[in-house]
Amino acid sequence: MSAAHRPRAGRRVSLLNLRSAAGQVFLAQFAIVLLLVLAAVAAVVMQAARDAVQQGRRESVVAAQSFASAPGVAEAFRSPDPTAVLQPRTEEARKKTGVDFVVALSTEGIRYTYPYPAEIGKKFVGNIQPALQGRTVIEQAGGPPLPAGKGTAVQSVVPVTDAQGKVVGLVSAGITVKNVARLWMPQLPVILAVGAGSLVVVTVGNALAARRLRQLTHGLGPAELARLYEHHDAVLHSVREGVLITDADGRLLLANDEAQRLLDLPRHARRRFVWELGLPESLACLLASRESVTDEVHLVGDRLLAVNKRPTFPDGVRGGSVVTLRDTTELAAITGRAEVARERLKLLYEAGVRIGTTLDVVRTAEELTEVAVPRFADLVTVDLLDSVLRGWEPTTEGWRQLRRAAISGEDVTMPVYPVGELITLSPETPQMKTLQQGRGVVEPDLRQARGWRAQDPERARRALEHGLHSLVAVPLQARGVPLGVANFYRTEKSPGYEPEDLSFAEELAARAAVAIDNARRFTREHAMAVTLQRSLLPRGQPEQDALEVAWRYLPAEAGVGGDWFDVIPLSGGRVALVMGDVVGHGLHAAATMGRLRTAVHNFSTLDLPVDEVLGNLDDLVVRMDNEERADGAGDGHEGEGVTGATCLYAIYDPVTGACTMARAGHPDPLVVSPDGAVCFPDVPASAPLGLGGYPFETVQVPLPEGSELVLYTDGLVADRHRDIDAGLDALRRALTRAGGRTPEEACRAVLDALKPAHPCDDIALLVARTRLFPSSCVAEWEVPSDPAVVPSVRARCREKLQEWGLEETAFTTELLVSELVTNAIRYGSPPVKVRLLYGRCLVCEVADGSSTSPRLRRAATTDEGGRGMFLVAQFAQRWGTRYTTRGKVIWAELSLHGGAATDAQRPADALLEQFDDVAL
To answer: Is the Cβ–Cβ distance between 461 and 455 less than 8 Å?
Structure first.
């Protein structure tokens, strides 16, 4: 403390010296306490007065009600002379209850009694209307003189009622305000004494606190203290040495600006232990200890700091230390170069972290440009071979043409080739040289770079006018194969590139090239897998009359999976719907999916029941697992392990409107009824494919015309951010909102609502709207088991075809039906039934009760029979046999738009002549 601020020795500093901070604080505290005590006393007095008034009101009510309820009072009000009867009684009640008056009143408010007889017969002063209605009135009012004196009284008025509850008179009792005051006046000395005592206690406490404050401030006033702090702060933060003050426990109490800079302390470092400040261990140990050091050198970051430490108090008892820090790093030039090297090392580290965060070639190139700007270049462009962008292997033939993949810079108006443009390089450009030589090229002054200017003279002129003046072009190469070129430009606001900048640019480009090549290879593998998977999925909708179908398939971002679906037309106008999901991702899952889809097609062609199709698929998956284990193919390849799969298989019959379904571990389908209601049909859940030996339960669900059957894979309703129950609820809501839309619109609405931003699993969705065969397009009848009825069957077929307008197919249809019915009567068993279905084609079905199936064979010239099924195969577009629980059905389809169904194209004589051809 300076001599000007130190009080003179021997002078007693008064506590009430208003120039000192202690005196001002003491007076302020005394004034505040005095106001608080006065306010407390006033509040207590007011509360006591209020309590006294309340007590007077209670006493007046009690006195009035007691007198009004006394025996004989009601009869006294009805006596000929109420005053004579009531006057002595009211006076006696007044004296006993201690109130100042008890007055009996008539219902008109005329006094019957009063302490002074002269006031009897006069009008009562007060409100009596509520009392006439049977209520009690409490009020303050003035009236004639009383024994206690004249003035305002607290009075109550109560009614006097007879046995029937009629008000026959009123009674008023009250206490004057002077008497009420006597109730609280005895408390006033106590209240004042307590207030005075509190004031004395608080004053003493404030005086002690002010005395302590005076000792701490040495009697200085606020202005002097503020000026002293400003001088201290200015000196502390202006010195070029770091200053730290710590306490005995190792907490940081103070750090000036230089210490903050040298140690790179966090913003809120005060009051924290030195171990929590991120300092080197040796320096933290020194700050936490009590030892004194002189010019001890410590390395902090890239700085060499000379540390001096002394105890805060010379006695060493109270602890605490003062530490000074001085930057002893040698020459400024050396420091600058070290800073540049440190920044570049940091930039290389950031490049390793920020480049290659995705497996997208273009995004990886963009990350390279973003890392280099603005700390190494003002403008960065990346040009890649077209084959690299597409995921193909790069070749030297593509060097002449590069495509601009990314640009980053502070000046977006710089006249350079835009992103996406194909650039044809001339042989003299720095970019072509760096590709041919395999190392970077530095152009410190672009005005002298003839090859760069000759590439596009007009664009180069405008670029120079915008300030481009220096370039480093380095190849992007991985595994010794160039992928493209990275161009680092600087403008006039930055110094030109020097030869030592080339090695850093090459290192930066090398790291980016590895990431770009990884992304290219992933793009190639992903494209191959997606192409394979899409080639294995349906490419178009098959012709069928039963369903209006739409579907969507979205592969996962990280790789394709094994999701598949199919729509398979069956005999009799029926359609099979399949939705499956193979466990795992990659080519192995896609190949497995293709095998399963082919197997489903084959099993469907055999017209097997739903549960048998799933059973055969289960056997196939088990066999595939066994083959992989036997060959060791599951070791070390993608998708290793047991091949598991889920599948839902459904067959819809448009004639009956029934859908038979079974599912092997697959999510339950949804049905949207024509009125828009969405429900789960509760298909029994069976074990997934590949476990072996488990049965598959089926269920038959009636679907009205216009219903929508929705099949999907779990990628639509479940991901890492959403469980499957929440996904199913969201799917139900989306289908409810999409009610009444076409299947195509429903697919679009569902994906808009549920598709994740980054799908981690394949998504397959199939929506099928049901149709029914009109009854007018179905003809069915039973045929007696007698060959003689075959002509009548042909005639009935002819009549139905004429009704449908299909006379041109009459001969072929009669021939097929005749052969099939004859075959069923001769080789089958009753009952024999014939059914014709008229849709996109004409379907002829003949059912009988036997399980023997006809087969196509060649009949010799001398054979009397054996040509019937050959004729059926030649005339029909398709034919086959399906088995039912009651026998079999032989069916044949005739095309109605050319093909095998027209008589002119396939005459019967020409067909029969083929039996004589020995080449057949």
So the answer is: no
Closest CA to 744 of 768, 764, 763: 768
Cβ atoms of residues 714 and 667 within 8 Å: yes
DSSP-derived secondary structure for 76-93 = HHTSS-HHHHHHHHHHHH
Residues pairing with 712 in the sheet = 765
Strand partners of residue 578: 566, 649
Q: Distance between CA 566 and CA 597 in Å, rounded?
A: 8
CB 236 within 8 A of CB 243: yes
Environment class of residue 589 by beta-carbon count within 10 Å: exposed (0-12), middle (13-18) or buried (19+)? Answer: buried
Could you give the C-alpha distances from 674 to 29, 573, 574, 703, 711, in angstroms and in order? 83, 22, 21, 9, 17
* Tokens 């060649």, residue located: 858
| Residue 501: exposure state from Cβ atoms within 10 A (0-12, 13-18, ≥19) | buried
Taking CA 865 as the corner, what is the angle to CA 863 and CA 869, rounded to the nearest 5 degrees?
A: 130
Separation of alpha carbons 622 and 356, rounded Å? 40
Please name the residues in contact with 100: beta carbons below 8 A apart, sequence gap of 6 or more.
Answer: 94, 146, 147, 148, 153, 174, 175, 176, 179
Handedness of CA 627, 628, 630, 631 (dihedral sign): positive
Query: What 3-state class would DSSP assign to 491?
Result: coil
End-to-end C-alpha distance for the chain, whole angstroms = 126
- CA nearest to 568, candidates 577, 559, 560, 579: 577
Which range in 91-100, 349-358, 454-463, 896-905 is most confidently predicted, on average pLDDT? 454-463
Q: Which of 266-270, 468-472, 745-749 has the lowest mean pLDDT?
A: 266-270
Q: Are strands 167-176 and 242-246 parallel, antiparallel or unpaired?
A: unpaired
Radius of gyration of the chain (CA): 53
Cα gap 806→894, rounded to integer Å: 11
Report pLDDT for 614: 94
Sign of CA dihedral 463, 464, 466, 467: positive
Q: How far apart are CA 387 and CA 42, in angstroms?
A: 94
How far, in whole angstroms, is CA 201 from its chain's centroid? Answer: 62
Query: What's the Cα-to-Cα distance from 340 to each of 263, 302, 335, 336, rounded to whole Å?
Result: 19, 12, 9, 6
Q: Please tell me the distance from the alpha carbon of residue 17 to that of residue 30, in angstroms, as a whole number.
A: 14
Q: Could you tell me which residues are beta bridge partners of residue 580? A: 564, 647
The candidate with the shortest Cα–Cα distance to 688, out of 617, 780, 609, is 617
Q: Dihedral of the CA atoms 738, 743, 749, 751 (nearest 10)?
A: 140
Residue 589 to residue 558: CA distance in whole angstroms: 14
In the block, tokens 């006809």 appear at 854
Q: Which pTM value belongs to this model?
A: 0.53
Residue the block writes with tokens 């043409």? 401
Contact 297, 328 (CB under 8 A): yes
What would the 3-class secondary structure string for 308-328 be?
EEEECCCCCCCCCEEEEEEEC
- pLDDT per residue as tens digits for the range 290-313: 788 887 877 887 777 888 888 877
Q: How many CA atoms lie within 13 A of 604 on its CB side?
A: 21
Name 576's bridge partners.
Answer: 568, 651
∠ CA 309-311-313, rounded to 5° = 155
Burial 302-323 (b: 16+ CB within 10 A, else e): ebebbbebebeeeeeeeebbeb
Distance, in Å, from the CA atom of 5 to the CA atom of 19, rounded to the nearest integer, reads 13
Q: Cα(711)–Cα(554) distance, rounded to whole angstroms?
A: 15
Strand, coil or helix: 7: coil
Strand partners, 401: 424
The 8-class DSSP code of residue 122 comes to S
Q: Mind listing the pLDDT tens digit for each residue in 100-119? A: 888 888 888 888 888 888 88
Residue 780 Cα distances to 648, 660, 771, 793, 843, angstroms: 32, 22, 19, 11, 12
697 in Cβ contact with 611 (< 8 Å): yes
Strands (E), 328-434: 379-385, 401-409, 422-424
